[in-house]
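pasting for ref. prot 1 ->
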Amino acid sequence: RNNATNLGLTTLPDLRDVVTKMKGNPLSGGGSDNVNIGQGNLPNISLDGNTASTTVSYTDTQRDQFTRNGTRSNVANRGSKNVTRTLTIPSLNVTVPLGGSDEPLNIENKYISLNKFIYLGE
């Protein structure tokens, strides 16, 4: 710091975690430590595919019941029985558009602009 003061430099830029470049006005900065990917950065394509059909079987207990005046009642002496039911879901064709517009990513690292380098070490 004493060497910088002797050269007339009163404020030193913080160069931690930045890249030095010869770009723009001296001691100006730019870039970012983060990269954000939005929908616009995705390609303008659709993902196509299909699902496989599947069959599901389950057992249901069925009771003989009737409803009278809003009241549900079992039919006398009929009891209940187990019924196996099968549900088949057919295969489906699926298309998912990404909706992107191929915008390039801004991946410029955080930087500070310098056009001279002065070694201030001892």
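and prot 2 ->
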Amino acid sequence: MNMRHAFVAAHKTVYPIAQLCRIVGVARTWFYGFVQSQPARDQRHKLRTDRDAELLPKIKEAFTQSKKRYGSKRVHQDLKADGEDVSERRVARIMRENNVSPRLHKRRKPRTTDSNHSLKPSPNLLEQQFDCTVPNSVWLADITYVDTAEGWLYVAAIKDMATREIVGWAMADHLRSELCCDALNMALGRRGPVLGLIHHSDRGVQGGFNRSSQHPFDGGVGDALSTWLEARSNVESRSNNYVAGGFPATLAGVAIARHCQDVLERDALKALQAVEAGALTPAVENIIEVNTLLSGLGFENVGCSAAHGVHDGLTILRETHSFFHGEKVAFGTICLMVLENRDLAEIEKVVRFCRAVGLPTTLADLNIIENVSEKVRCVAEAACLDGGIIHATPVEITPESVTSCILAADRLARSLEP
């Protein structure tokens, strides 16, 4: 409007004012009243500018609180919720004039393979020979991702090359090596350790985790170690076994469980050393039979107790998810013996056996290092839920007693010299 008034004022000495006003599209009365109304317009402009200056910090605060994601509509809603009487158009104008606008990012797809690392990759044993007809001879591993409403979900899977079956898988919201370990643990738990098996994956950084071939083997040893010690508990507590809904422990089951212990003490260390050397010896065959057959017959016909009960409680802690079932049961076995108040010499013998074969004996060995008392209390409460197998132990079971026995077992194991 100022430009129209200036045009008419500049040409009024040459042309009639009425004609100039028609050309610029204003009334003649507006031209004569423009100067008189200027103070009122200046006042309105000042009020508007002051109000904009008052609203700008509030708009920026709402925008910042949204992590710079909100547009004018949602910022306007926040201001209205705070009691501000302002229109959405005004909010949009202020944001536009002050360059307050959300940054539009194209969502980046994750990279599941990163070969740019300093870790030494394992040798390529498969050498692109993907024609395989024998189950459990070649496993292929890979990672993919799924877009969900809560973000990216990463899935690690292991496929048997012969049967095309997915034998192990794991899901997580991260790409750390624990994801691969969890998938591998499931596959080994379902299929068992197999001599000569090739586990093939790409050479991304997640594949650079250090996982010895001994781990699935000693994990089985840890599970088998509990067979006799839990069988003794079930016999003393007169708990039922797992056959056809539950019967008293059988004599054959107890004898098999006792034999498991004898074979483990005699052959376990020799077998583990042979596996590390890639050799198949009678000790290896004996331990495979104990891990896969005799241990199962023993616990099915006698039962489990606190060793597996503590294991069940440990599974609620994320720190333990990368450990095999048998590794957690091994620590639970030490807790069982402390809970039953067994002779110190017998407990020490089991602790030293676990250390010799590489099984965890302390909470630190299971990566439980921070907030130990609080986490152990959570483990005990989970283990002591109604119907849990820990109640087959021939002593009073409460969250307090289990918490004390776990802490005592940890301290006892740490006190014994390696």
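Confidence is low (pLDDT under 50) at residues 205-215.
The two ends are 92 Å apart (CA to CA).
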